[in-house]
Design brief:
By secondary structure, the chain is α+β, with helices and mostly antiparallel strands. The protein has one domain. 22% of the residues lie in helices and 40% in strands. The protein is built from one helix and seven strands; from the N terminus they run βββββββα. The protein has a seven-stranded antiparallel β-sheet with strand order 1-2-3-4-5-6-7, with helices on one face. A hairpin with a 2-residue loop joins β1 and β2. The longest helix is centred in the last third of the chain and has 22 residues. The radius of gyration is 15 Å and the shape is elongated. The two termini are 26 Å apart.
Length: 99
């Protein structure tokens, strides 16, 4: 999963689904984000989760739980799409086998 910040909006990119793996990159508008110092904060209404990303430490916390924060890499949108390419190709091959 990747998050892209663009013009005060958060966009989630994903190539994962437990029951129906996508064959194209799934793009979802999550909502607005607010920057306070080195923190980028946003609320995902669909999942009812508050996210905080520390740009200096490259850590993502869920609902303010920094002790469980995940390390993140910063990538350009082009790099993000390249990262998902092999996953999507695998999903396409699996989809062909199933049909």
């Amino acid at each position: 999963m990747g998050y892209y910040f663009f013009k005060k909006k958060v966009i989630r990119y994903s190539a994962f689904h437990p029951f129906n793996p996508p064959t194209k990159l799934v793009k979802t508008l999550v909502g607005d984000y607010v920057v306070t110092g080195s923190l980028v904060n946003w609320y995902d209404k669909a999942n009812r989760i508050n996210y905080s990303y520390d740009k200096e430490k490259h850590r993502l916390a869920v609902n303010g739980k920094w002790s469980n924060a995940a390390y993140c890499e910063e990538k350009s949108l082009g790099e993000l799409k390249l990262f998902f390419q092999p996953i999507l190709e695998k999903n396409r091959l699996q989809h062909r086998k199933d049909n």
